[in-house]
Inverse folding.
C-alpha cells in the first residue's frame, strides 16, 4: 500500500504552519508533539499507521473555514477525521498534511419532533442521537455495530448502515441536509428540513464521499417513531446453504424484516462465549431475524417466518419474549467483532456486498480460501442485503501473516465483484480497497469520478491517496481550452 510521496517543501514549513493554525485555533486545539500525535496515527484499520504532520481540533465552522482557506492558499493537504472508528483507512494521516479532528463538534443543536428530524454536529455519536429522542418515542434508524463510538459525521462520510439497514436504509436514506466547508473556505448548505432538496442531488454526492469533497460541520437527520412491537427470532441451521436459502425465501415471500443477520459457527461460538446471548452452539449458521411494527402484524409475520424456517429444516428456533431478551439476542451480534478479537491478536474486517442468492456459494468459496491461505475466517454479515463482513484472523508478529491476510481479503472482494456484487457496502474504500477499484470500474469510470472531485477540490488537497488507485491531475481529465496558444496551468507536467 503506497501513499502519495510527502512534500518536503511543506514539511520544511511545519513550524510556520503550526503558528498559523494556533492563530486560528487558540489554546490546546493544535497538537504537534510526537507523543500526542500517536493517538491519531491510524483509524480502525490499524494495519496502516502514519504520524500526521499536525492535528488541529477546531470548535466551530468558522474556524474550519479559515483552516481550509489557509491550506488552499498554501497547498497544505487536509485529512478530515471523526471518531477514528472507520475500518478502511479513510482517516489515515499524511506525513505532510493536517489531520482535522472534529471531536469538539459534539452537540445536538436542534430536536424537531414536528418535522421528525434532528440537527446535530458531526462529532455526536450515532447512539447519542437515539438517546436524545428516545424519551419521546423516537429513534435514529442506522445503527452500525460501533454506534456507541462512531460519529454521525463519519457515518455520512462512509454511508454507514447497520443491522436495521435492510428495512430502514443506509445513512444516505436518513440524512436530510448538511452544512459543509469547501476547500477554499466557503461554507455551503445542502438540503435541510424537507424531503427533497432543489436542483442537483448534491446530498447524494456528499454522502459516502469519504472526506474527498469537503468537511461536514452540521448534519440534519431523519428520526423515526419507535415501532409498537419488535421481536427477534433466532434460527439455527446445520449448513450455510440452508440458512442462505431461508434468507432468500423470507425476502421472496415479501417479508422485509427490521433486521436480518447471519453468523457462521466460528462467529456464533465466539459471540456466545463473550456475551452469553443464548445462541445455539451446535448450529453451522444462525439467522437473527427482527420483525417490527403493529403487534398483530408482527405476530403474523413471525408465524410466516417460522413456517419458512421449518420448511428449510431449521434445527433451532427461539422467539424473544421480552424487550430485555430481544436486546440480549442482538448483543451477541453487536459484540461479534470484539468477541472474535479475543481469539486472535489481529484481524481484518472486510466489507463487500453480493446478491443474496450467492450467499452459500461465496461462503463455501471463503472456506476454501481460508484453507489456501492458512488463516481462519469468521463470518458476520447483514444477510438481508448481502453485505458481508468476513473477519480474517492473523498474527502480525508472525512473518508473512499480515500480507497473507491482505491477499486473502483482496480475494474475497474480487469474489464479491465476480458474482455480481460490489467492493463495499458501508465501510468505504479508503486505502484498503483503493487498489481494487479497477476490479469494479473501468478507467473511464474512475476518471469520471475524479472529475467530480476536481469540481469540489481542484488542487486535490482533501484526503489525497484515498479511494482512487491512480489520481490524475484535474487538468488532465477533461477537454482543455487553448487560449492564444497558451495552455492553462502551464506549470503542470504533461505526458
Amino acid at each position: 500500500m503506497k501513499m502519495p510521496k510527502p512534500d518536503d517543501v511543506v514539511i520544511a514549513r511545519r513550524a510556520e504552519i503550526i503558528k498559523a493554525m494556533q492563530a486560528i485555533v487558540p489554546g490546546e486545539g493544535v497538537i504537534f508533539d510526537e507523543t500526542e500525535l500517536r493517538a491519531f496515527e491510524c483509524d480502525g484499520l490499524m494495519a496502516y499507521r502514519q504520524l500526521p504532520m499536525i492535528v488541529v481540533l477546531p470548535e466551530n465552522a468558522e474556524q474550519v473555514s479559515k483552516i481550509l482557506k489557509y491550506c488552499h492558499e498554501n497547498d497544505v493537504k487536509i485529512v478530515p477525521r471523526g471518531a477514528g472508528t472507520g475500518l478502511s483507512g479513510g482517516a489515515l494521516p499524511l506525513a505532510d498534511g493536517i489531520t482535522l479532528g472534529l471531536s469538539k463538534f459534539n452537540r445536538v443543536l436542534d430536536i424537531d419532533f414536528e418535522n421528525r428530524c434532528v440537527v446535530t454536529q458531526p462529532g455526536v455519536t450515532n447512539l447519542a442521537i437515539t438517546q436524545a429522542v428516545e424519551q419521546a418515542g423516537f429513534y435514529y434508524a442506522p445503527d452500525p455495530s460501533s454506534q456507541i463510538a462512531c460519529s454521525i459525521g463519519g457515518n455520512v462520510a462512509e454511508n454507514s448502515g447497520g443491522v436495521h439497514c435492510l428495512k430502514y436504509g443506509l445513512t444516505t436514506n436518513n440524512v436530510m441536509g448538511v452544512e459543509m466547508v469547501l476547500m477554499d473556505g466557503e461554507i455551503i448548505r445542502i438540503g435541510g428540513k424537507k424531503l427533497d432538496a432543489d436542483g442537483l442531488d448534491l446530498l447524494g454526492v456528499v454522502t459516502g464521499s469519504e472526506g474527498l469533497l469537503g468537511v461536514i460541520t452540521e448534519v440534519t437527520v431523519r428520526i423515526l417513531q419507535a415501532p409498537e412491537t419488535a421481536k427477534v427470532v433466532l434460527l439455527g441451521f446445520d449448513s450455510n446453504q440452508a440458512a442462505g436459502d431461508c434468507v432468500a425465501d423470507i425476502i421472496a415471500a415479501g417479508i422485509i424484516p427490521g433486521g436480518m443477520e447471519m453468523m457462521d459457527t466460528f462467529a456464533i461460538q465466539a459471540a456466545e462465549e463473550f456475551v452469553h446471548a443464548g445462541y445455539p452452539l451446535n448450529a453451522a449458521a444462525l439467522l437473527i431475524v427482527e420483525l417490527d411494527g403493529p403487534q398483530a402484524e408482527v405476530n403474523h409475520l413471525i408465524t410466516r417466518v417460522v413456517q419458512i424456517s421449518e420448511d428449510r429444516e431449521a434445527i433451532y428456533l427461539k422467539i424473544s419474549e421480552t424487550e430485555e431478551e430481544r436486546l440480549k439476542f442482538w448483543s451477541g451480534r453487536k459484540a461479534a467483532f470484539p468477541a472474535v478479537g479475543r481469539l486472535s491478536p489481529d484481524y481484518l474486517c472486510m466489507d463487500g456486498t453480493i446478491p443474496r442468492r450467492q450467499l452459500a456459494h461465496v461462503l463455501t468459496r471463503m472456506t476454501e480460501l481460508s484453507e489456501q491461505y492458512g488463516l481462519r475466517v469468521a463470518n458476520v454479515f447483514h444477510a438481508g442485503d448481502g453485505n458481508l463482513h468476513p473477519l480474517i484472523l492473523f498474527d502480525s508478529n508472525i512473518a508473512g501473516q499480515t500480507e497473507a491476510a491482505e491477499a486473502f481479503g483482496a480475494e474475497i472482494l474480487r469474489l464479491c465483484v465476480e458474482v455480481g456484487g460490489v467492493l463495499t457496502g458501508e465501510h468505504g474504500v479508503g486505502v484498503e480497497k483503493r487498489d481494487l477499484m479497477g476490479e469494479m470500474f473501468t478507467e473511464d469510470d474512475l476518471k469520471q469520478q475524479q472529475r467530480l472531485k476536481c469540481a469540489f477540490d481542484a488542487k486535490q488537497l482533501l484526503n489525497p491517496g484515498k479511494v482512487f488507485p491512480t489520481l490524475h491531475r484535474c487538468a488532465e481529465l477533461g477537454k482543455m481550452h487553448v487560449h492564444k496558444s497558451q495552455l492553462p496551468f502551464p506549470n503542470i507536467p504533461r505526458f
